[in-house]
Structure formats: C-alpha cells, structure tokens
Amino acid sequence: MDKFTTLTGIAAPMPLVNIDTDMIIPKQFLKTIHRSGLGKNLFDEMRFNADGTEVADFILNQPAYRETQIIVAGDNFGCGSSREHAPWALLDFGIRCVISTSFADIFYNNCFKNGILPIVMPQEVVDVLMEDARKGANARMTVDLENLTVTTSDGQSFGFELDPFRRHCLLNGLDDIGLTMEKSSAIDTFETQMAQSRPWV
C-alpha cells in the first residue's frame, strides 16, 4: 500500500448527501476480485449516459476536475452496502482523500485498508473547503497527515483528528498484511520454537 504523508492536489466539490457505495461503483462491476481497473467505472451512472457518452456537467467529467485527487463531499459519504470495491474504484481513479462531515462505518474502515484518507470535519469547515474546491484546477488543496491539517488554496488551515493507529498505518503504507509482516521476526521465532517443542504438529 502506498504511503500517505502529504497530498497537494485538485479537490472536487460533491455536495450531494448520502452518496452510497452503489453510486460510487454500481453492482454490475462487482464481479472482479482485482483492485485495479475499476476507476473507469467510478460513479458510472452519474458520469455516463446509457449510450456510454459522458454526462458533460458531472463534476469529474469537467476538464478542471479530471485529475481530481481529493473529494469534498456531502454528509454520510459511503453509506449503503459494504462493498470494498468502492474504495478500490476511488483509488484506481486517483482519489486519495475524501472529506465529509460523516462517513458510513464500513466504508470508513475500508478506506484505511486501501490507502485512502477519509477526513471528518465540522459542517462549517466543509463549507469553506467546498467553496475552495469550486475554484477548479488552479486551486490546489493540501492534506498533511503528519500535522493533521487541511489547507485551502488561499492558505486557510484547518486541523482534524484521527486515530493514532490509523494515522501510523497510512503514514507507513501498512495494510493488514503489512501489519502482520512487521511481526515476521516474532512469527519466525514462534514457529521455530513450536517445531522443536511439538515436532508432531
């Protein structure tokens, strides 16, 4: 998993509330077990018409937001079914951070396991960040995980809180497998001891 330290990038405003996982990645794209390749189907039913052409006014189809790395979203982002394909699709598109007033619990947890930083901010702060995101590609927002701050394009900085363990995992690029591998020396020692004390196992 790629480390997350500091991200400076284009932020897309998506003020819609209750953006659920079926909107993020519709059910017909859940057949794959691969994490890559889903970005092209991110927000598929909002991004594309029935004939496959782009919906011109959808935010991620607009020229200024095609390289979006941050989403500033409405309340209750990631609600709905517990599909891990939702953060897979966001990450494959290039999204590394989502900022909202609240997230669905399962989606929130899945983000950390896939290298995405979900940030909870109060409504008044999200409103400021949303307005900054509306400035387009020339307005770059900075997310600093080390210092737990989000800074707008004009220099306004806002702090946020995050569980220290989750912060540690993102800063070091550790998913569940990575966390296990940190203990590889202790695991090897245990297996050696078990082989000597219980060779019949």
Defining traits:
globular, seven-stranded mixed beta sheet, 201 residues, alpha/beta
Describe the structure in your own words.
The protein has eight helices and seven strands. It is globular, with a radius of gyration of 19 Å. It is α/β, with parallel strands linked by helices and 201 residues long. β3, α4 and β4 form a beta-alpha-beta unit. The longest helix has 14 residues. The model has no long low-confidence stretch (mean pLDDT 92). It has a seven-stranded mixed beta sheet.
Short summary of the structure?
By secondary structure, this protein is of the alpha/beta class. The protein is 33% helix and 16% strand.
The secondary-structure class comes to alpha/beta
Give the % helix: 25-40%
> How would the global form be characterised?
globular
- What is the strand tally? 7
- Please count the helical segments: 8
Portion in beta strands: 15-25%
Low-confidence stretches: none
What is the fold's blueprint, element by element?
Blueprint: E1 6-14, H1 21-24, H2 44-47, E2 70-73, H3 85-93, E3 97-100, H4 105-113, E4 117-120, H5 123-133, E5 140-144, E6 149-151, E7 157-159, H6 164-172, H7 176-181, H8 184-197
Parallel strand pairs: 1-2, 2-3, 3-4
Antiparallel strand pairs: 1-5, 5-6, 6-7
